[in-house]
Amino acid sequence: MAKTGPKPGPRPYNYKEFCPKGHRRIEHGSGKHCYQCDRARYKKKYQMDQNFKKALNARSKKWIEDNRDRYRIMARDYAFKRQGIANLDGTQFSMNDYNRHFQIQGGMCKGCGRHQSELKRTLIADHDHKTGFFRALLCDNCNKALGHCEDNRSTLLNLLRIISHAE
Fold first, then answer.
1. What whole-number distance in Å separates Cα of residue 19 and Cα of residue 90?
2. Which domains, ranges and CATH numbers included, belong to the chain?
3. Which residues touch 97 (CB under 8 Å, ≥6 apart)?
4. What are the pLDDT tens digits along the chain (167 aa)?
5. Which residues are paired to 33 by β-bridges?
6. CA 167 and chain centroid, separation
């Protein structure tokens, strides 16, 4: 009769044990780890050991210099995720989506029509704060105008009437 034992490969997580601080321990591979305690030790080492801090910062800076384009894409994607911007199909908005809309809009603000080359900052991915869905690429001024009006159509129409009566 063949031996019946655990299947080869990584063992499933075992949450039955706790570390001395009361965190759940995960048993896998060769040992047991408490990720919360490991993270705290790493943070403490970073704060206390200046050589460790300098080495880590130097390594990070070197990676950023060597991978400048990749870093910018990752940073922008993280910002879109943090802001909660999504495409209309519900997928996470990314730098690829930004570039596609930039090409569709011809590099121009959808609000005022100014080209990005005329602006100090890059075009901003505007989104509905209630739904999180992307709307258009706008310049900083147009995005702030929408924000100050709190995306209220009646407020924007009233302001438009004021401008048209003044002319």
1. 39
2. 26-58 (no CATH), 94-166 (3.40.1800.10)
3. 87, 134
4. 454 544 554 545 555 567 777 776 665 555 566 777 878 888 888 888 888 889 889 999 999 999 999 999 999 999 999 999 999 999 999 999 999 999 999 999 999 999 999 999 999 999 998 899 999 999 999 999 988 888 888 998 998 899 888 66
5. 26
6. 43
